[in-house]
Amino acid sequence: MEQVKTALVLGATGGVGGEVARLLVARGWRVKALHRAPQAAARRGDGMEWLPGDAMVREDVVAAAKGVQLIVHAVNPPGYRNWGQLVLPMIDNSIAAARASGARILLPGTVYNYGPDTFPIIDEESPQHPVTRKGAIRVELEARLQAAAADGVRTLIVRAGDFFGPKAGNNWFAQGLIKPGKPLTAISYPGSAGVGHQWAYLPDVAETMVRLIEKDDQLDTFARFQMEGHWDADGTQMVAAIARAAGKPEMKASAFPWWLLALASPFVAVFRELREMRYLWQQPVHMPNKRLVQLLGAEPRTPLDVAVHRTLAGLGNL
Q1: Locate the NAD-dependent epimerase/dehydratase domain: which residues (predicted)?
Q2: 116 lies in some domain
Q3: Which 3 state secondary structure label does DSSP give 187?
Q4: Beta strand extents in the chain (DSSP E only)
Q5: DSSP of 13-52, one letter per residue?
Q6: What CA–CA distances, in Å, run from 59 to 77, 88, 103?
Q7: For 297, which of 119, 227, 259, 263 is 20 to 30 Å away at the CA?
Q8: Based on the structure, what is the number of domains in the chain?
Q9: What is the pLDDT of residues 124-156, one digit of tens each?
């Protein structure tokens, strides 16, 4: 009988971590998750094994990773607070745990690593010249993983566009385009007119990641892939899908209030981080998925209208 595989998920209460964890459970994996209040987390009834611990404490991560084949590193500081002080120590702890257990690290990647010098088309080997503080941290994070790969620590990075989904965490869809928790009455759009934007439905992201992990023996020690997700060529397709899902196809988007973010940024960390990413809305940034399709044959992709309807339902907008 085939041995049950085990994964440790860091960030299992978040958007991408939660989706990947639930999918692994459904695929027959044993899934362990760290939480500072594991008894409360266990009441979620999601089939995971919740362990006491903190991703900032190396001993906790190393102990939890004993015997696992996969470490999902999907943990981020809540509300982007203390980003610079927390992100790199946490990846160092995951690297130490992977080195001790022999597990592969799975990291959700971003486009923050890249600057306008690589736009509009980015591939997995494009040079990383970030223009933001957070982008520079992401570059250093991946550099540490690549350095560890030379010592045998295996990593899988999967990049995708802006997340959306019924259980997504901090994201532009729920924080910029609509207001969760009430019937939809307005849509705002952060992008410049006619500028394309890339979106990723979180369940599709999780499915892609798990399919790649299931082909672990075909992956490089340091493997990177990109998802195409839903490419909105002129910034109108996502807005139209939201309006259709809400039963108001005539609804149009208003301009996103960037001026409000500028006023509130000194006081609200989330607004400060969102404002820093404005350059990604002012020009198209497109990630082709050729490498991914070569390995998987096709990219998992839920039709846009279905994905948006499920997202709005999950966010309490319908």
Answers
A1: 7-219
A2: yes
A3: strand
A4: 6-10, 30-35, 49-52, 70-73, 104-109, 155-159, 162-164, 187-189, 197-201, 222-226, 230-232, 253-255
A5: TSHHHHHHHHHHHHTT-EEEEEESSHHHHHTT-SS-EEEE
A6: 19, 16, 16
A7: 119
A8: 1
A9: 999 999 998 889 999 999 999 999 999 999 999
